[in-house]
Amino acid sequence: MLEQLTPIQNSMSYEGFFQFSQQDKLISDAERLSVLEQLIGSLDAQLFGHTFLMQLAARIPVCGLTIRWPQGALQWGREATYSKRMSVGEQSGIMVSYCFAKVPSAMENRVLEELHDIAVPSLKNVIEHHNIKCLASKDSLTSLGNRAAFNDVLSRQFSHSRRTGTTFGLLMIDMDRFKSVNDKFGHQEGDKVLQAMATVITASLRDTDFAFRFGGDEFCCVIQDADSVALRRISQRIRRTMLEQPILARHQMRCSIGASLYQDGDEPDALFERADVQLYQDKQRSYPLCRTA
């Protein structure tokens, strides 16, 4: 990980490590304007980072870039032996790590400092926009992705599979007898059950998978690079972990799961319909075993 790399500079502020007069600037005003125009072209964090890394690599031998802040982190390029960490203002909590395969020269350090200064105002805006976007895509109760986030991920997954020929899986999860918990113990207890279920689902997935609260006591998962075996294992893991979760075990909560795999030429409705059929069949069994359509 980048934080384990040997730092060649750990500045607490982007001001003050290399300070030069206007006459000492290595990047001309025209070039600064060009870089700035590239960086302010989008508030999308992924695009910003990619553009910034390209601007850096065109001038200095940087091979990777990581931006960390209290709510998250994003990375571009590759890790390397040396890193230089620079903050984005003392109060922002944003830290940028620049990776190099070898220790940069004093001249390269100067160029990096100037490019970092140019990027700071845009970077603050990008991170603020990213935080707001993340909040808007999260379910407020469970912190899983919400319906809008699900639609976005599913759309991108369909595009990726159609382009590359890879497959992915969809899990539809419905909690059995959840209404009885709300009716008997109240909605506050029901909320705790939903939060516990979200924790179970998250713990049962791989790092590359996505979990969403679809609505009420329904959850969906998008499983990347999946096959029927992977979907079955994840489904079994969810059920097993539910038995180990105290509040779910206390209420004897169970779930029904429907699974389907992307097939060439699929549309979202077809993928949903196959998973929904499996979910319905799962609910009819006394001892549900997830099957894949």
TrEMBL record:
Residues 166-293 form the GGDEF domain. InterPro entries: Diguanylate_Cyclase (IPR050469), GGDEF_dom (IPR000160), Nucleotide_cyclase (IPR029787), Rev_trsase/Diguanyl_cyclase (IPR043128). GO terms for biological process: cell adhesion involved in single-species biofilm formation; negative regulation of bacterial-type flagellum-dependent cell motility. It comes from the Bacteria. One of its GO terms (molecular function) is diguanylate cyclase activity. Its cofactor is Mg(2+). It is an enzyme of class 2 (transferase). Its EC number is 2.7.7.65. GO terms for cellular component: plasma membrane. SMART domains: GGDEF. NCBIfam families: GGDEF. This is diguanylate cyclase. It comes from Bowmanella pacifica.
